[in-house]
Amino acid sequence: MTKTAQSVAGDVKDIGLAEVGKRKIEWSNQQMPVLQIIRKRFIKEQPLKGIRVAACLHVTSETANLAITLRDGGADLVLCASNPLSTQDEVAASLVKDYSIPTYAIKGEDNATYYAHLNAAVDHKPQMTMDDGADLVTLLLTKHAHLVPDVIGGTEETTTGVIRLRAMAKDGTLKYPVIAVNDAETKHFFDNRYGTGQSTIDGIIRATNLLIAGLRVVVAGYGWCGKGVAMRAKGLGADVIVTEINAVRGIEAVMDGFRVMPMAEAAKIGDIFVTVTGNKSVLTGDHFDKMRDGAVICNSGHFNVEIDISALEKMSSGNRVARPFVQEFSMKDGRRIYLLGEGRLINLAAAEGHPAAVMDMSFANQALSAEYMLKHSADLKPQVYVVPEAIDKQIAKLKLESMGVQMDKLTPEQELYLASWSEGT
Fold it and tell me: Which domains are assigned to the chain?
């Protein structure tokens, strides 16, 4: 465990990387005006004063600015990584050294270290949790149930985590209220579509240096993340194919100009495969058996279960690292299949994740949801709640103002018309 001169606990790769990390944090802060506004208010009002917060999030420069905002709002915060490959080591070092925020995160950490870091966050005896994938909540509820009575509430950042939490709530396992930050319009419309769309393509290009134009890109899942990936791949000149299990999303993809077909058919013709479903075994041995020589497969869903890597290993005669974050599997018939980022989030494994301007809104939702949870926890049950509409609209308004964008307002006559029923044809 790393100790600094300030005796701040944490476990980071190299504290000497802090100077580089601080510059990255400051650069991202310039692109996060909404969070800046919230931070200024938090400094004055101290809405989280004395509250122990355990946050399990991707440790990036954008997350660092959320952590600093929470700290400046009075929170007693400990941060750990929510994915073994998503940490920016220089940012983790700076959070410990420059901002005195205990941080447990190392890029490439093994499974044992990952859970040691999760346990370090739980050892903080949190009164509030912030999760990205619900690993922290799950560990707290299953292994540290004695700490649960002190937990006021929590927030969840991503689709996968919200699905897990709603399953917990349904079977009575969830023991405290959680706000689904992911479901805020200013989160999933923008973070999932524009953030995941751009950063996923960025990760693929950084890892492979492939020319996307002219390639057949298969996008598994046409939720908000899939829409973003498909849109950006199309913009770069790709022939985009979508696979889906939801008829409404399938017809939407068709009307958006994409071919839709089963993965069994897409596997025969695709050049690059991107899974963004939040489900397991989306690409399996049956699909690998049909893929062309040189096929590239990657995942941008939260967990590395969407690609059946064990099946790929069994089907191959061997594998090697072809490039950083590119693993070449030699199939027994001579074909090669390339797995990116160990099947983990390619946008964070091989790139830097979402742009700061996008995370500005996501983390504004996190900060304001934490404040809301503390104010209203007595009225909330152990369920999953959506972000209040007033918070969502406030964040959108602040974002537009920061961009210099103005909008029309309803006149009194228009407001009366919309509120009445008597005026017809």
Answer: 10-187+354-402 (3.40.50.1480), 194-349 (3.40.50.720)
What token pair was written down for 345?
């989030």
Place of tokens 């802090």: 18
| Residues 27-50: b if buried by 16+ CB within 10 A, e if exposed | ebbebbbbbbebbebbeeeebbee
Query: For residues 53 and 341, what is the distance between their CA atoms, to the nearest angstrom?
Result: 30
Tokens of 251: 């017809």
What does the alpha-carbon distance between residue 91 and residue 192 come to, in Å, rounded to a whole number? 23
Phi first, then psi: give them for residue 74, nearest 5 degrees: 105, -5
What is residue 348's three-state secondary structure?
helix
Half-sphere exposure of 389 (CA within 13 A, CB side): 0
* 227 backbone φψ class: left, alpha, beta (φ>0; ψ -120 to 50): alpha
User: Using alpha carbons only, how large is the chain's radius of gyration in Å?
Assistant: 22
In the block, residue with structure tokens 């989160």: 187
Number of DSSP helices (H) and strands (E) in the chain, helices first: 18, 16
- Residue 22's closest CA among 102, 98, 78? 98
**Do the Cβ atoms of 216 and 241 come closer than 8 Å?**
yes
The tens place of each residue's pLDDT in the chain, 425 residues long, gives 544 444 689 999 999 999 999 999 999 999 999 999 999 999 999 999 999 999 999 999 999 999 999 999 999 999 999 999 999 999 999 999 999 999 999 999 999 999 999 999 999 999 999 999 999 999 999 999 999 999 999 999 988 899 999 999 999 999 999 999 999 999 888 889 999 999 999 999 999 999 999 999 999 999 999 999 999 999 999 999 999 999 999 999 999 999 999 999 999 999 999 999 999 999 999 999 999 999 999 999 988 999 999 999 999 999 999 999 999 999 999 999 999 999 999 999 999 999 999 999 999 999 999 999 999 999 999 999 999 999 999 999 999 999 999 999 999 999 999 999 988 77
Is 131 in contact with 107 (CB distance < 8 Å)? no
DSSP per residue over 65-82, as a string? HHHHHHHHTT-EEEEEES
How many C-beta neighbours within 10 Å does residue 230 have? Answer: 27
Longest dimension (CA), the chain: 75
In sign, the C-alpha dihedral spanning 376, 378, 384, 385 is: negative
Q: Is residue 325 left, alpha or beta, with left meaning phi > 0 and alpha meaning psi from -120 to 50?
A: left
Would you say 228 and 192 are in contact if contact means Cβ atoms under 8 Å apart?
Answer: yes
